[in-house]
Write a structure and sequence with these properties.
- It is a single chain.
- With 718 residues, the chain is of the alpha/beta class.
- The chain folds into three domains: 256 residues, Alpha-Beta Complex (2-enoyl-CoA Hydratase, Chain A, domain 1); 177 residues, Rossmann fold; 223 residues, N-(1-d-carboxylethyl)-l-norvaline Dehydrogenase, domain 2.
- It has 30 helices and 20 strands.
- The strands form four sheets. It has an eight-stranded mixed β-sheet, with helices on both faces. A seven-stranded mixed β-sheet has the order 1-2-3-4-5-7-10, sandwiched between helices.
- Strand 16 and strand 17 form a beta hairpin.
- The protein starts with a strand and ends with a helix.
- The structure holds (S)-3-Hydroxyhexanoyl-CoA (3H9).
- (S)-3-Hydroxyhexanoyl-CoA binds next to helix 2, strand 6, helix 4 and helix 12.
- The site of (S)-3-Hydroxyhexanoyl-CoA has 25 residues, from helix 2, strand 6, helix 4 and helix 12.
């Protein structure tokens, strides 16, 4: 126990003394974000310490669960909307820290991210808990480090690592930071006493160095640096396609190698400002807060009791079932994996084994981890042990009759209180629940393929799903490493329901004369991970074809429907699985353009009386993306989601929508809903009733409002 002589400060920052060591503690829960009050109070504490001759060393530490997770991201919105002036930021404080005349040790636990790492780098020494993480994640918010991070980091860790950390935004471990020289010492056990002891040790020796900003040893030479920056830019162009912040971060680190610290900081400030005021940064910040917002369900308060999920059963060992079993096993949950017959079970298990092997090969898992996870998956052909599990996820073939039969059996086999979930991607959860005597226990958990990779989990609420079951699934999604979004029950739920009109328009465009390649290219260039035709081939064109056949009786007569994909299926072209769909595929599943398909589809279209014309990439993008937006607006209006941001998070995490555009609803807000509404009205006139504008879109456009404002209105209502 350290005897502390407590001296001063306020709520956010406290200054205490342990004999001759001053301790400055930041206390701004939950993550000690550097809001303006915090920065000011640290500055006051530093000034006080500077005047205290009894102080031989200073420790700067974070209270609570973490050191400092960065600048307060909420402040950025205030600056860009003009509510707050952009001031000098943290730079003056960091110079003040660097210039203090006592050795200052920064003690890091949890995260030192963004401004948190910049603050730490201004200290003279850094010690860390072994499980701490350090990083400059700003690019993930569409900005770059804005408090000297791009200038101090290369001086500490060298140019290659600094470029990687600032441009890619991924954190490093305390161990790596120690190796790189970013951290001076790791402290096992209690951090504060360790940091105090360390600070006394160094105070007794001559000061190693005081000002990192004057160091140049690790800044390299221009000839070597040129190739580092060229490689980083090339990587950014492919891995962070379309994003401006990674390139700005590289420019800023490059400035560190060419200019003085002060000039480098000026370059950083200019680039930071450009990024901060960009649409990309606003969209990425929306995505950051959105991901946290979707976890909050207005009518399921966070105090709602949850049920334990320590063991599960998965019914169906196909691609989805196998992937879902891996998701649970990876989170340490034991899984019973059931199939109807031995060959199907063997095939499923072999696919899981292969998947783990390739993860080990790619370095994602260790051999030991993979073996332990595999042991958690127990194959079975019967429902005998289902009475012991806490939850079942059904992942059998997509057909209502079969699903109902399975749920009837689950109802008999499972204990009261067990959660019965379906991985259906389109079917009515209430009808599935009607096959049981406990509809309150039934819910949809719609995983996305490949289930062990994709982050999205659509949690589908039936009309009887209990709040405990909903709260449990929302919490479970976090444990499984997924982003869970609660949606209502309608055909296709949110993601697939919206994807229907999107892919419909893509097909219409080809049927009207656009080439397959031009449609895919326009949407790829917009930022989608893949074009819609290539996505169809990947998912299997036959999936939609079969569903359309099942639902044909529900379609309105006289409304134009796309036909090309069904005709391709009739020819056995199901996509990648048959090595032919919209494209041809080689043995490595690489797409090859097939001009015959373009010719065939255009011929069919002429025969059907569809006039052929040239289509611009702008029209291609508007038709496909606004089809998403209009359907999203209807979903919002019907109350299938609480907020527009729920739709955005679904599209960012499950459908390859570019994060720097914030999701379809945010993108529409950015374009301006009046403009979007006008364009949709034009399409309505040209293409008929499928394009009827959603009433809420019309209303918001007329009122000059945004979907995001509707979020707020609804949050107030809830
Ligand atoms: C920056 O530093 C720029 C600098 O260069 C300086 C320029 C001048 N600000 O994620 P969680 C909230 S840019 C405000 O659920 P976890 C979050 O919204 C910043 N709020 O917890 C949530 O609120 P709520 C660079 C923040 O344990 C609550 O805290 N830094 C901030 O799963 C809990 O968060 C980053 O990009 C913030 N900086 O994960 C790091 N951070 O409860 C961003 C969090 O109301 N943060 N909140 O929903 C993270 O990556 C994670 O929050 C972290 C904790 C890993 C730290």
């Amino acid at each position: 126990m350290i005897a502390k002589e407590f001296s001063a400060m306020d709520d956010l920052v406290q200054l205490a003394k342990d004999k001759d060591v001053a301790i400055i503690t930041i206390n701004n829960p939950p993550v000690n974000a550097l809001s303006p009050g915090v920065a000011k109070a640290i500055g006051e504490a530093i000034a006080q310490v500077g005047h205290d001759d009894g102080v031989k060393a200073v420790v700067l530490i974070g209270g609570g669960r973490t050191f400092v997770a960065g600048a307060d991201i909420k402040e950025f919105g205030k600056i860009t909307s003009g509510k707050t002036q952009r001031g000098a930021g943290l730079l003056p404080l960091l110079l003040q820290i660097e210039d203090v005349r006592r050795p200052l040790v920064v003690a890091i636990h949890g995260s030192a991210f963004g401004g948190g790492l910049e603050l730490a780098m201004a200290g003279h020494y850094r010690v860390a808990a072994p499980n701490a993480q350090l990083g400059q994640p700003e690019v993930k918010l569409g900005i770059i480090p804005g408090a000297g991070g791009t200038q101090r980091l290369p001086r500490l860790v060298g140019v290659t690592k600094a470029v990687e950390m600032c441009a890619e935004g991924n954190p490093i471990t305390a161990q790596e930071a120690l190796k790189l020289g970013l951290v001076d010492h790791l402290i096992e056990g209690d951090l504060l006493p360790g940091a105090i002891a360390f600070s006394r040790e160094i105070a007794a020796k001559p000061l190693r160095k005081t000002r990192e900003r004057n160091e140049k040893d690790k800044l390299g030479v221009p000839e070597q640096n040129a190739s580092i920056f060229a490689a980083a830019r090339e990587k950014a162009h492919t891995k962070q396609r379309g994003m401006m912040a990674p390139l700005a971060a590289i420019d800023a680190v490059e400035a560190a190698t060419r200019l003085s610290f002060e000039e480098g900081c000026q370059v950083e400030q200019k680039l930071f400002g450009e990024c901060l005021f960009s649409d990309q940064s606003k969209a990425l910040i929306h995505a950051f807060f959105g991901e946290r917002e979707v976890a909050k369900v207005p009518d399921v308060p966070k105090e709602t009791p949850t049920l334990p999920v320590n063991s599960v059963a998965v019914v169906g060992a196909g691609t989805m079932g196998g992937g879902i079993a891996m998701v649970f096993a990876n989170a340490g949950v034991s899984v019973l994996l059931k199939e109807a017959d031995q060959p199907a079970l063997d095939r499923g298990l072999a696919a899981i084994q292969k998947n783990y092997q390739s993860s080990v090969k790619r370095g994602r898992f260790t051999q030991q981890f993979a073996e332990e996870r595999l042991k958690l998956i127990k194959p079975t052909l019967s429902y005998d042990d289902f009475g012991k599990v806490d939850m079942v996820v059904e992942a059998v073939f997509e057909g209502m009759a079969l699903k109902k039969e399975v749920f009837g059996q689950l109802d008999r086999a499972c204990r009261p209180g067990a959660i019965l979930a379906s991985n259906t991607s389109t079917l009515d959860i209430d009808e599935i629940a009607s096959a049981t005597s406990r509809p309150g226990a039934v819910i949809g958990t719609h995983f996305f393929s490949p289930a062990n990779i994709m982050r999205l989990l659509e949690i589908v609420r039936g009309k009887a799903s209990s709040k405990e079951v909903i709260a449990t699934c929302m919490q479970l999604s976090k444990k499984l490493g997924k982003v869970g979004v609660l949606v209502g029950n309608c055909r296709g739920f949110v993601g697939n329901r919206m994807f229907g009109p999107y892919r419909r328009e893509a097909q219409f465009l080809v049927e009207e004369g656009a080439s397959i390649e031009s449609v895919d290219k326009a949407l790829f260039d917009f930022g989608m991970a893949m074009g819609p035709m290539a996505t169809g081939d990947l998912a299997g064109l036959d999936v939609g074809w079969r569903i359309r056949k099942e639902y044909r009786h529900l379609e309105k007569t006289g409304v134009r429907q796309p036909f090309a994909e069904d005709r391709l299926c009739e020819l056995g072209r199901y996509g990648q699985k048959t090595a032919a769909g919209w494209y041809k595929y080689d043995e490595n599943r690489r797409p090859i353009l097939d001009p015959e398909v373009d010719e065939m589809v255009h011929r069919w279209a002429r025969e059907a009386g569809i006039p052929q014309r040239k289509l611009s990439s702008e029209e291609i993008v508007d038709r496909c993306i606004y089809a998403l937006v209009n359907e999203g607006a209807r979903i919002l209006e019907e109350g299938i989601v609480w907020r527009a941001v729920d739709i955005d998070i679904i599209y960012l995490n499950g459908y390859g929508f570019p994060a720097y555009r914030g999701g379809p609803m945010w993108y529409a807000d950015t374009v301006g809903l009046d403009k979007v509404y006008r364009r949709i009205s034009e399409f309505h006139q040209q293409h008929g009733e499928l394009w009827e504008p959603a009433p809420v879109l019309k209303r918001l456009a007329e009122e000059g409002k945004t979907f995001a404002e509707l979020n707020r209105e609804q949050a107030v209502m809830a």
